[in-house]
Amino acid sequence: MIALQRLVKRYGRFTAVDDVSLEVAAGEIHGFLGPNGAGKTTTLRMIAGLLMPDAGTIVVNGHDLAKAPEAAKASLGFIPDRPFIYEKLTAGEFLRFHAGLYGVDGNGIGARVGEMLELFELARWEHELVESFSHGMKQRLVMSAAFLHRPQAVVVDEPMVGLDPRGARLIKNVFRRMASHGVAILMSTHTLEVAQDMCDRISIILKGKIIARGTVDELRALAGGADQHLTEVFLKLTGGGGLQEIDEIV
Amino acid sequence: MQAFPYLLVPHILSSRNRARRRQRGDLLRAWLFGGVGVMVFVSLLVGAYWLTWQVNDYAELGDYLLRLGLSWLFLTFLSFLAFSGVVTALSTFFLAEDLRLLLTAPVATRRLFHARFLRTVAQSSWMVVMFLAPVLVGVGLARCAGPMFYATALATLVPFVVIPVAAGTAATLLLVNIFPARRARDILMLMGLLFAATIVMLLRFIRPEQLLRVESLPDVTDFFTALQSPITPLLPSFWAGETLFASLQGGRDLLHAGALWTTAAMSVVLLRAANERWYFAGFSRSQEAPKARFTALRVLDRIGRALPLGVVRRNLLIKDLKIFLRDVSQWSQLLLLLALVLVYLYNFRVLDLERIPYMSGVIKNAYAFVNLGMAGFVMATVAVRFVFPGVSAEGRSFWIIRTAPISLRDFLWSKFWTGLVPVFVLTEGLTVVANEFLGIDPFLKAVAAAAIVFMSVALVGLATSLGARYPKFEADNPSQVAGSYGGVAFMIVAVAFIIVTIVLLGWPSSIYLMQQLRRSPFSVAQQMFIGGCFATFAVGSLATG
């Protein structure tokens, strides 16, 4: 569903994404982990069509993003870390506009918008301006927009930031349900518990390169500790052991 | 897929929602400012009507003057529109936040282009259209033009604004693709210089010094010809002027109207093709983070320490100055302004006033007030662009000010003084030098110089307070803040203030000049009137500030 081949992105002399290849199959939730500045957001923004890669190909649902951008984007849902929403629109107006962008129109649109607002527990806010929403509500609204057009693949950058425990559980459930319906989900997160709970496979990126990939168990084995928590595995693989020592001293 | 106007839906709905959920006092303010707007509109209309009526008396020469006036008017706006197009396109095509939403959606580049270009044209040209509309209506009424003239005016304005805005958008597309990273600020700096160059070129096209040789020319045709640069007839401003002049005469100039429309259509087609080829590459580059390049500006710390200020005010002042100086897009626009001022002064330098008999004596001195008005407009423009957005420029970091134990008075104090000093120096210099070139009466020179002090306090104070009253923290750039509701309100109030100032100073000064001319002493009533006007102006200015 999502296939990256030898993806490269350079900012001047700095290579932010270096020869990254990745595949997310239908129905898979794939975690994309890495320390700050490792190249996660740059990779996701290239898949979403916001940045132009310097080399490599991105294929979404069989459509090459460079050659058929509209077809590729039509089958993709993108949830950015800092989403843009028109503040002076109501939740309902925003979703209807979003649906129109993806060619979802006609009589069924009202029902579909209601369905998504219900799913993300925003139904009673349908006619309220977005500017009055809390961060968590905005996050849920962006997610309902991303799933509105029934995408085959979804790219999510930090989905849990700003969500309360109830919201976080809701999102986890929605992602699992979507994946069970065949949607491929590529998710970047710093919340390692979420990755451990939800992801079928995980890729760890460091300094623009994928340094490890596999299931949580495979990554544990790679880090040399069969019963370790994913946090320890992550720190060992990305060279963040020093933090543990500081923790111990403190 | 929906047609391109669909992409404008959020803006239309947002405007509707804003109007529906207005806050207390919004309606009153809208009526108030709308009323002042109507007054400005009517003033322009009456002014244009009066001027056209006056030149009507000169038969053939009047026609030429009108034709020339139209051509010059459009030429001035041509450069303004091109520059405005560059700045607006940078925002609408590359920096607008909603692009992050639209570009992830399956929206064809062509659809996005049409929607964004329409927005760019509207945003860049509304001010020009609002100015030209009453002027053209005034001219039409004075010449008793039929409905065809107004239809022609409308049909002329559309391609006239499209051409320079398309050129400006093309320049932005090129610049964004040339720079290796997000260098919007550098681009703006370059644009400032480009605009300055355009102004100088414009000046050469117009050749104002030719005006002074009017009496030496064998006839008016030669006079008119002498004012035309060889390039001028190739500019859309000339075509627009000619089309409208022909329509005023009851005829049709299909050649120039055709040139306008075909050039506009061709500009859009070429721009669209270039956009399809280079837009995404440019947008992608514009998303890349800029490299931090800055200077420590330690001299400001030293100056701050030397000033007799409290800790809070000193630190706020240093912070405001450092942020301003490190923001290239801010001070590069001062270069542009400097170029405009130089051109303005150059006009006086090349004017050989002794050769114009009617520009001597009282009338020459009265021109000091035209100059004062001009300095006032420069002051208002600088204030709306640099002082008004001061509070909004705090943006998302405004929480630091609000949560710190400092008063808003201290905060606004810093904004006021960082605005007042440059605004005062610029406009005082402009006024003194221009009056010197004109050879104005010493009394009027002193009046003008003192007036600038009070006007600076009034307008900078007004810009600071209205900027704080109508902040726009979410704006992408200061231009957007300047163009907001509060910015427009400031400009309207500022223009009204300048007009009142001219009346309050011009009227008593005219009495002074008359008495000087007649060599008769001032009566007590006259002295009281003159003193009263000056005092009213001074007190009014300080109260406004």
User: What is the string of helix and strand elements of chain A?
Assistant: EEEHEEHEHHHEHEHEEHHH
Gyration radius of chain A (Cα, Å) is 19 Å
* β-sheet strand percentage of chain A: 15-25%
Q: What structural category characterises the helix and strand content of chain A?
A: alpha/beta
End-to-end separation of chain A in angstroms reads 45 Å
- Could you report the average pLDDT of chain B, rounded to the nearest whole number? 80
Unreliable parts of chain B: none
| Overall SS class of chain B | mainly alpha
What Rg of chain B, in angstroms, do the CA atoms define?
Answer: 25 Å
Q: Specify the overall morphology of chain A.
A: globular
Beta strand count of chain B? 0
Model regions low in confidence, pLDDT < 50 over at least 5 residues of chain A:
none
Largest beta sheet: strand ordering of chain A? 6-7-8-3-9-10
Q: Could you give me the name of the CATH homologous superfamily of the largest domain in chain A?
A: P-loop containing nucleotide triphosphate hydrolases
Number of strands of chain A: 10
* Share of helical residues of chain B: over 70%
The interface involving the most residues is between: A-B, 34 and 33 residues
* Quaternary structure annotation: heterodimer
